Amino acid sequence: MQTTLNSDIFMEYSFFVMIVFIITELFLSYWQGKNFYRLNVLIADVSTGVIFALVGVVILAGALIVYNYVETHFSLSALGYKFFILESPFSFSPSFSVNWQALVSWTFAIVLSDFIYYWFHRHCHTFNFLWATHVTHHSTQEMNLSVAFRGNGLQRIFEYTYYLAMAFLGIPWAMFLLSHRILKVYQFFVHTRYFGKLGIFEEFMV
User: Could you read off the pLDDT of 135-185 as tens digits, one per residue?
Assistant: First the structure.
């Protein structure tokens, strides 16, 4: 599926950009004497990030199977109410045009993805069993971009459970996947002390 391919390409380029920003932040903070990075913490961030990614492959595969089953059999789209179009919102051939229904679909999916994560993250700081899977991310006193990689792979099991709400609404799994990945890239960039307020984004994104 083209959307899945685009999602994979998006993450490949995003990962490269993330590494460049981490290296840039590391040297810039060192040059400015701000000491945002410590070697032992950086190693821990990268190590847990690798484990998070490896475990996440298996968990994501299982989550998408469950998501697709729910969306196919128990969603609004299964009842005949199809509100979300899995198409590109923009076309450049033969001339530029906007598919407004697709644009609304993607915008809603991305904002909803962030909204669901807000509640999942809030519950991670409220309920002990969720905190047990999330505490890894907060097990450092540093705040820098590499900390975004620090996570517990098992957290994804509970996180994806929350996202089944999108499946019940009839949002295709490929749309969920790309929206979720866009959210993760956004979350990466807020793990830094170099960026302050994000302006209008803080009105509806967390």
Answer: 999 988 888 999 999 998 899 999 999 999 999 999 999 999 999 999 999
Q: Which residues contact 43 (CB under 8 A, 6 or more apart)?
A: none
- Residue 114: both structure tokens together: 């962030």
The HSE-up count of residue 187 (CA atoms within 13 Å, CB side) is 21
User: Hey, what are 201's tokens?
Assistant: 């984004």
pLDDT tens profile 48-85: 999 999 999 999 999 999 999 999 999 999 999 999 99
Please give the single-letter amino acid code of residue 171.
I
Distance (Å, rounded) from C-alpha 57 to C-alpha 63?
10
Q: What are phi and psi of 76, to 5 degrees?
A: -60, -35
Region of 60 (left: φ > 0; alpha: ψ -120 to 50; beta: rest) is: alpha
CB neighbour list of residue 94: distance below 8 Å, 6 or more residues apart: none
The rounded distance, in Å, linking the Cα atoms of 86 and 115 is 20
Run of H or E residues at 138: none
CA distance 93 to 27: 43
